Amino acid sequence: MPELDTADTGASRRLDELLVQVATGDRQAFESVYQLASGRLFAICLHILRDRGDAEDVLQDAFVTVWHKAAQFDRAKASAMTWLSTLARNRAIDRLRAAPPRPLDDLSVAEEIPDFAPQPAQAAEHASDRERLDDCLDTLEPRRRSLIRLAFLDGASYDELARRIGAPLGSVKSWIRRGLGQLRVCLER
Amino acid sequence: MNVRDLHDMPHDAEPPGADILAGEYVLGVLDAAQRAEVEQRIARDPGFARLVSQWENRLAPLLDSLGTEAVPAHLWPRIRTSLGWPSVGATPRAWQRTGFWQGMTALAAVVALVAVLARRDVVPVAPVAPPVAVTPTTPAEPEQATRPVTPLLHDDGSPGWLASVDKAHGKVLMVPVPAPADAAGRAPELWLIPAGGAPRSLGLVSINRAHTVAVPDMLRDALVNGSVLAITLEPSGGAPQGIPTGPVIAKGDIANL
């Protein structure tokens, strides 16, 4: 779908440029970045924290950090959306780790792990990157694939993953480490 | 049993290599203490930081599956407040985006104010009008009984100024909806734009005080229905060549004259 890809790249580049402007103290650019990215960042925080109040706090904190640290954004290293998502996601995980472990019954063990669904153009970063990651995840054995998705999207620790799937901690670590190794080899192919 | 056997530990009991550790950090499976250690290493080891950044780029597309979630409207004002920014922006753009209802409330207040101001020199026409409306301090002028009000609106429809045109005396009463000064130090300048003609300056106007603007004789003919009153942001001394240079921040059509 070349048209979608072009649209993505345009939107993604615009966000890159806005974030570069934020580093110069441009409040208008900051507000535009907020308008373009806050919905996606909120979804990330909410998925990890599962509490709207906590997710709002983290999102607020993340955007305050964006304003102060936008100069650290380097478009040669990552897209603005990846940089922003990573920042918000790390804040959400830090908050999750600072809280007591979640009781298991709050987390559905048999939870459906979302597979890639077709996403609207503005949500997709680079369709080709996503397809490649999807293809490589598909080469992993199902258990490793599920664990990697679950860990990344929920921000679940090794301990939590072990409790959730009822497997020994050592095994979970082993599966994930091997899965990561295979994934890197596949993605670099 | 030899020395080699002692080292033949199961693979997964060994600490992972730097690349896998970077992957674990990005994946989010480490506990708080491990995350803190890794973050210190990111700060002092550029090679390791690069590995982390590669994993972030590799895994980020997974987040697409989460889509977006509607952010509550109160969050943006909270962010502004925590950055120490004024709750109603002092930048011209934010100024233009004054909330619609806030604007309408201000409009109602300004209409009331204009009514009071106008009454000071307007002879009441309605037989039931209270006679106290005529104050002795204002010299009586032979004027028309009522004057139309032209709202000069921002892009978002909120009022910036109300202009009351007195064609007979070549005056325009300008009543601003008080607003913060332009952050860049520019001043609002009023322009009269005849239909199909070029803007003619009527001078700078206040952002917080009502005052009368004199219209030069040669421009009085342009005080007619169909002409436009507009405000632009100009250097503090006014537009240098008598030609607008800044953005139009409010405008309104003269009608009902």
From TrEMBL, chain A:
Q: Which domain of life is it from?
A: Bacteria
Q: Look up keyword Transcription regulation and say if it applies.
A: yes
Q: Which UniProt keywords apply?
A: Sigma factor, Transcription, Transcription regulation
GO MF term list: DNA binding; sigma factor activity
**PANTHER family reported in the protein's UniProt record:** RNA POLYMERASE ECF-TYPE SIGMA FACTO, RNA POLYMERASE SIGMA FACTOR SIGZ
Annotated family: Belongs to the sigma-70 factor family. ECF subfamily.
Full protein name: Sigma-70 family RNA polymerase sigma factor
Query: What is this organism's lineage?
Result: Bacteria, Pseudomonadati, Pseudomonadota, Gammaproteobacteria, Lysobacterales
From TrEMBL, chain B:
What protein am I looking at? Anti-sigma K factor RskA C-terminal domain-containing protein
GO cellular component terms, alphabetically, are:
plasma membrane
- State the organism named in the record: Stenotrophomonas maltophilia
Which residue intervals define the domain Anti-sigma K factor RskA C-terminal in the entry? Answer: 105-248
* Biological-process GO terms, alphabetical: regulation of translation
Gene Ontology molecular functions: sigma factor antagonist activity
